[in-house]
Amino acid sequence: MLRLVRANWIQRVSCNIQKMQTDGKLFVGRMFSVQDSLPKLPVPPLEQTVQKYLRTVQPLLSDEEYANTLKIVKDFEKDPGPKLQNLLEKRAQRETNWLSDWWMNTAYLDFRQPVTVNVSPGVVFPKQNYSDKEGQLRFTAKLISGLLSYKTMIDQQTLPVEKMGKQSLCMMQYYKILCGCRIPGRKKDTWVCYPPDEANPPRHVIIAHNNAFFSMDLYGSNNQPLNTEQLHVQLKHVVRQSKEVETPIGLLTTENRNKWAKSYELLLKDKENKVSLSELHRSICVICVDNQLPDSAAGEEESTAARMMLHGGGSQLNSANRWCDKTLQFIVGKNGVCGLNYEHTTAEGPPIISIVDHILDYCSKSEDKSAPAPDVKAPRKLKFNITFPELKNNIEEAVENIDSMVKDVDLNVFKFTEYGKNFPKSQKLSPDSYLQMAFQLAYFRLYSKPCATYETASLRQFQLGRTDTIRSCSIESFEFSKGMLDPAVSTQKKAELLRKAVTGHKNYVAEAIKGQGIDRHLLGLKLVALQNNMKVPTLHMDMAYSLSSHHNISTSQVPAKYEACLVFGPTVPDGYGVCYNPQEKQIIFGVSAFNCCPETVSMKFIDSIQQSLRDMKAVLEGSIQSKL
Ligand code: COA
Ligand code: HC5
User: Fold this and answer.
1) Of 409, 427, 451, which residue constitutes the final position of a domain?
2) pTM score > 0.90 for this model?
3) Are residues 500 and 374 in the same domain?
4) Could you tell me which of 81, 49, 46, 72 has the C-alpha nearest to residue 544?
5) Pocket of ligand 1, beta carbon within 6 A
6) Which domain holds residue 212?
7) Residue 624: band (very low, low, confident or very high) from pLDDT cuts 50, 70, 90
8) What is the pLDDT of residues 511-526, one digit of tens each?
């Protein structure tokens, strides 16, 4: 039976941690050793938030608009601001984390657009060394062995606590990545989770091949993991049983969530379908063994691979060989092209990248010598009966929709190899803030105006923490961008403007990760109003609020040990999505845009970022401070 986990599940697990730690039964492992002592997410002071808010909207508004917003903000500070602040503070006292449930709903479960491209990011692994089906299946088997060895660390709670500097981070997301799944619902989705400590935990993965889905056990009868050789035999069995391309039922998961929910309800009316859906939800993850790979021009291979990871390339390629509701889908393609796609409700990027680094380490090691597990069951093909004509129509519509979505995505990967984090570090500048300023300059060069920019800030220093927004566009970034493009401004002055902008950004980051950001606070003030049957405050209906939340650049830094390319879609139709993996001597960028907006072109933005990185280095090297 499906256990539909309500949004407060995370709350419940957190309570378990406290209970179990005192009982001495569960959550005793290293992974959760500091969980209880992590601080609770604070509610920032109201005055601090509104002051910061005003500073961040100023570069986006005319003087007249700013004067109007200033009045709205001042009114809000009198009423209803203090009332809402009080209600929010009370909530923060009651809850382990006042934001996490709200965030899960607002950012994910309430969101109705397809998760494909709009929510779920893709990751491309470094190219692997195989070129035929046999090699592909051998690599898949090894990848699963690496995954199993990581899962053992989660199950036994032996994973080390992740740190940011000296600060320990909340490990709850790690606990959920190999057992979570999103379920479509009309108006709102739900999320299920089958954690390792509860009865009947997941023991199988789903293998997708030729659009068919197979349930494949990873453990023998005594709970012993299958060794790599056994996994390989099982995979060959799957491939033998799915020689022909099947009905693209997986495409339903790429649809608008309300539409998918209607199809899902129809599917559930059939008993065999119900069992198959339950197997999918309850699995550890999905492993997509892809058959198709489009030809790529020389130098285009990584961008092609990134598209396979983000959307699968359309109905004729691999988009149907996916189950996009599942938290993790590893994708093993032809000719060494592999990576993953993940549904974001469960976790942020760093736990995912931690698994990737572990698996790639594992795959580069010698063969698995462990003994075979006993009593291995053959993989079982999941049956889907498409009995209702409406379902057939919905699948046909899903084919059309994914194909037009794929046509709309403009995605390219770019490796900047002239320098990496080493250069800004040598200039005593934060590499992340430096890169954010490169994006600001790149945008300003193309559009002659600043734009609202989102950068992810981790809130995992707090119990059950997720993210806040770093508003990278600032008064200082605007001054810097204008100065850089003005030939009348000296190199010395340009370098000063750059340093000032980078420092301003770094200060914002430092505050955001300490729970003193403004976006989640403002969201909380709005949601607490709604929860108490009050009106949405005027501040939240002001154009300054919507303009500063319309992120023409949506960014995230996700560092990885390997040369992984990370990609996600823009969050607005006229925006860019920029994910970057800064390494010591190079920076890997994944840049996306939508073709439906003629003004945004990923290669144009990439070229402009490259120009910014060159100009910024030249300016710093040409300035006096650099020569001292
Ligand atoms: N001089 C010299 N070196 C500096 C420096 C300075 N002024 N400022 C920073 N550095 C160094 C740091 O010590 C660090 O060194 P390391 O490479 O040895 O670790 C390195 O530069 C990187 O620091 P910085 O570039 O400032 O970034 P950060 O690691 O502090 O990260 C954020 C900043 C915002 C990305 C991070 O705080 C965060 O919140 N990350 C979460 C993102 C996330 O969750 N993404 C996924 C979303 S799904
Ligand atoms: C594999 C890396 C994926 C990164 C995904 C990411 O950064 O998601 C952001 C999550 C958040 O809460 O900030 C959202 N964003 C894609 C819109 C930046």
Assistant:
1) 409
2) yes
3) no
4) 72
5) 348-350, 421, 425, 428-432, 456-458, 509, 513, 556-558
6) 109-159+168-409
7) confident
8) 999 999 999 999 999 9
